[in-house]
Specification:
mainly alpha; elongated
Amino acid sequence: MHLLLAELIVVLHLLFIVFALFGGFLVIKWPRLVWLHIPVVVWGALTEFLGLICPLTPLEIWLRQQAGADPYQEGFISHYLVPLIYPPGLTSGMQWLLGGGLVIFNILIYAWLFTRKHKPAKK
């Protein structure tokens, strides 16, 4: 059961990252989602800029240890998704680039949404 929960944490972690990056597009359909998306982007960017560890990571490792497995050993999710979340050789400089990319990408999305919403009507 612990191993299954650890795998679910990895999936949740990946979904969080995808939402942080692309959630601005969901705001097009559901504008109120902006109140969830902006804090997620801020958290994601701060995590990268400050080199913080997401609370999901220690939880996932603990669950794997409780299951008697080595962290990130075996399984589809561990083999394919974990390297996306924790790339090998990730440096502080790379984290700054990732955080900056996240912020810039979302600023572009929101700028596009803002200009689209406030565009004058054609006569």
